Please model this.
Amino acid sequence: MVIKGKAEVVWAAVTGSRNLWRELAALPRVMAISPGRDATFSSQKSALSESPRTKTFPLTEEEIFYMNCRAAYLTVFKSSLENIISKEQLYLALQHAGRNPSQKTINKYWTPQTAKLNFDDFCIILRKEKPTSKAELLKSFKQLDVNDDGSILHTDLYKLLTKRGEKMTREEVNAVISLADVNADGKFDYIKFCKLYMTTIEQCLKTTVEKLEVDSKLRHQQFGSHTEGSPERDPSPVPKPSPRIIRKTDQETFSNKGDTRSSLLATTRKFKTSVSFTITMGANSNQNSKLTEPNSIKEWQCVQSKGCFFLEEDGEIISHQYWMQIAQRSMVYLTIKPLNLSQVEGKPSPWLSVDTALYILKENESQANLQLMCFTELRNREMFGWTGELGPGIYWLIPSTTGCRLRKEIKPITEEAQLVYRDGTGELFLTKEFRSTLSDIFEVIDLDGNGLLSLEEYNFFELRTSGEKCDEDAWAVCRDNFDTKKNELTKQGFMDLNLMEANDREGDPRDLWVTLHSMGYNKALELTEACPFIIDIYADKCKPRIKAVHMEACSGQLEKAICKSVLNKGDARVMDGYENIIVHTYKCDTWITSVIENKSNNKVIIHINNELSKNCINNRGLNIFAVEVAPKSTMVCQHVMPLNERQEWIYYCVYSLIS
Model:
């Protein structure tokens, strides 16, 4: 729900970036050299229906999706086992898949910490970044068609392409308007353009699929962690595994579709060596090392900030990340816990059982050079904390959750909640249930807890729900039209903003549901795929400062921090005969984390078997899986927690090196 003028809305809908227009200029060249573009599902099916295989065995949408992923990938790389190693390669591969990524989109997936992406990562990105359909293109162009004649004046087009969004150069615009097929009499014929564009990408897709069909080498090649014949049909209930995971259902080397135990016996001869861990944890075992407040805490200075873990469609978890400043050496007490929102009787609050942690890293010369200082490993009920001394400086606070309890919802929702209604006069109102939900959302996004939304706080909400930011000019419009105090939006103003959106859509709630789903709510208005949290920081010598600076995936610096903490504190076991391969296991009173360290110069594949564990749940959602560990690297293998904390739980895991 970005606050912007109609022209900006239309512009964002039409392009989102200048890449679409650049492809328009390149269409003749694309027809000749680019046999890998992915259109909408309808065009995919029509192209694929003519292949020899589909005449006898119709493909599912999932199989079509992966075939098109491969088609796009293999126009850039010789094998899908090759990695994407630069932004330019990612950009090119996405274009071959029919996407038109902006620089903002590329930066979302290729962060400063990204070294490479594999084919599985590419598939995940394509699931998130949907291709533009012909209907969407036509609808967007039509809003710019002032004369309703199927065309846009070159003068208007020039202004749009050079003044808005990612601005194009004069030469690039000239290349667009000089195409004879879609330009005449000083006008751009967008109807012809849409037809030409969709026909081109459909033909390119058909060409590539036919090439895959006749090339037996490519047809039988294993792509990433997906076999060609049997992609997973319904991955939604299972949390996203690491891109390096090789699922047991994907490879006969690890398991067949029969009984798991017998198949494992059949594959044990393929293991070079194994090492096992057995850890027995008592019921409510956290009572032995309970978090306690410092005695003089009431005299310490305190700051507070809220945030949230969000579960993505692919199971990835993202959250706010923070910058903290300590002015002078102080004793510091930090805590993090789930935020207790207003609870409706009879409705569950699943996020309150989600584990939370906070990793504290010291900034030295740059953000890229962060030193792990500590993390909140002690617990008091739902709160996790740490007490110790910190010197003056800038610190990064990275929230973490294992993912064991923040998982994709499986239960179906039979009845959709009503969001808006009209009274007897036809005036539109928000329902009581929706207002209550919006009140909770306001509570979550009001990071400093002052009862108002600053532009920075609102923009975190915007980035989460729309992927865009509200600029100062748009915020001024908001101030003029909605209730604000001290240049910040009140809760009533936030409610009215949502009511305005409902009125703009004439009561159609679909855009409101997009916002709600982005914030973790299901169709029954239950918060099931997010976990809001609250951070408290106390210091005895100075007043700490905290500021939310990012909302990013819980990876990168976090994975490095977890690996380092486990290597420092965990139990290390070397694989017999392979001294360069070490399994580290760390247990606290709430969870167990394992990290695999590969000191060798070659990648290794480790098979993990948790079948004999009792009363356990892990973040992978699989009892048996395998991971690939790059040379000279460490990786988080799994997190494990008790399914029922009131009962004893036994962690029994076998790690085996695959030949």
In short: The longest helix spans residues 190-214.
